[in-house]
Amino acid sequence: MRSTAFTKAILAVAFTAITFSAAAAVPESKDPIKITVLNWTSQIVQSHITGDLLEKLGYNVKYVPANDQLQFTALGTGDLDVEMEVWEQTNKDNFYKALKAGHIIDAGNHAAKTREEWWYPDYVAKLCPGLPSWKALNKCAEIFATPETKPKGRYLAGPVDWKMGDKQRVEALGMNFTVINAGQAASLWAELKSAYRRKQPIVLFNWTPNWVETVYPGHFVEFPPFDPKCISDPSWGPNPNATHDCGSPKGGWLKKAVWKGMAKKWPCALSVIRNISFTKEELDGFAKSVDVDGMSYEQAASKWLTDHKNQWSKWVSQCGV
Ligand code: TMO
After folding, report:
1. 317 in helix, strand or coil?
2. Distance between Cα 18 and ligand 1 center (Å)
3. Which atom of ligand 1 sits closest to the CA of residue 210?
4. β-bridge pairing 177-181 and 153-157
5. pTM score
6. Is the distance from the beta carbon of residue 88 to the nearest atom of ligand 1 less than 6 Å?
7. DSSP assignment, residue 319?
8. What is the residue with the minimal CA distance to atom 5 of ligand 1?
9. Which residues contact 70 (CB under 8 A, 6 or more apart)?
10. Is 199 left (phi over 0), alpha (psi -120 to 50) or beta?
11. Of 4, 85, 192, 289, which residue is the least packed, with the fewest Cβ within 10 Å?
C-alpha cells in the first residue's frame, strides 16, 4: 500500500514537471498567429473559437480577412498562418497545389463531411417534375429565368472566390442556364427568403454543413457523380470533349491547413489546430446562431467555448492549460 502511494506521488511529481515544462515553453513565439477570416459564417465562428483557445494558452492572435483562393499563396509564405475550413469542392485545386509544393501542412480533417452544390427549396419539385436530376432541371430551365437571363434560367451562384467551376459545368453539360454570382453569402439567403415567401422557382448555391436546411427544407441537384478524372480528363463523363461534366463530391472532406513554418515556430499551437474537429451539427449550429439567431461571430464562439469546456480542454491540455 505504502509503496504504491509513494510511487503514485513520485509519478505525480514527475507528471507535473513534464506538464510544467511544456507550459513554460508556450508560447514558443510572441508573434501573432494570423488566422484567415473568409466570407461565410461557420468559418468565421470557428476561426474565433480557435483564436480564443490560442489566446487562453498565451499566444497572440490576429484575424486577417482573405480571399478563398488567394489565401493559399499567403499561407504558403507565412503571411497567413492558419485556415480552419478548407472545403473539398471549392478549395481542392489550390489546396493540393500548395501542399504538393511543400508550402503548407495538411492539419487534418474535421469530423464533418461536406457537400457544395446547386440546391432548390422543396416546393420547386412540384414546379419541375423529375428533380433532383440535372436533366430534369435543365428541361425546366425557363421557369428559373429572370429579366437578365431569359430565356435561359438563372443559377444563383456564390461569390466568385468560391471556386465551384459552375460556368465550365454549364458549358460541359450543355445547360440552358446563366450563372449569376451573388456578391456575398447574405445575398443568397435574401433571394431564397424572398422566393420562398412567394413560392417562386429558384435554384441557388448551398452547402452542408450550413443552417439553411434547418429553416428551409430542400434538396441538392443530382449531377453525374464526381470523380477526380472529371476535372482532369475530358474523355471521362457524359461529354467526351470537356472536363467539369459532373457534380461536386458528396461526403467531401473539410480540412484545416497551416503555413509549413508553424511546425517549427509554434509546434504546440499546431498540435491544437490538429486536434480541433467539429461535427456537422456543431457547424450547422455556428452558422445558425449568427445568420438566424443574430449573435455576433465573437458571441457565438464564446458561447460554444463556455458550453464545451470538457471538449476543448482535451484539445489544448498538451500545451499546459
Ligand atoms: C466555401 N463554401 C462553404 C461557402 O462553399
Report:
1. helix
2. 41
3. 3
4. parallel
5. 0.91
6. no
7. G
8. 116
9. 161
10. left
11. 4
Q: How many whole angstroms from 56 Cα to the centroid of ligand 1?
A: 29
How many residues make up the chain in this entry?
A: 321
Residue 219 CB coordination number (10 Å)? 17
Local structure of 198: helix, strand or coil:
helix
pLDDT digits 0-9 by tens, 120-131: 999 999 999 999
Distance (Å, whole) CA 51 – CA 98: 23
Q: Which of 13, 63, 58, 47 is nearest to 319 (CA)?
A: 58
CA separation, residue 59 to residues 34, 136, 153, 169, 316 (Å): 11, 53, 50, 44, 12
Lowest-confidence segment of 22-26, 49-53, 183-187 by average pLDDT: 22-26
Instruction: State if residue 43 touches ligand 1 by the CB under 6 angstroms criterion.
Output: no
C-alpha cell at 279: 461535427
Spell out the long-range contacts of 267-270 with Cβ–Cβ below 8 A and sequence spacing 24 or more: 267/28, 268/22, 268/25, 268/26, 268/27, 268/28, 268/57, 268/318, 268/319, 268/320, 269/26, 269/27, 269/28, 269/33, 269/54, 269/57, 269/59, 269/319, 270/105, 270/107
* Contact 90 CB / ligand 1 (< 6 Å): yes
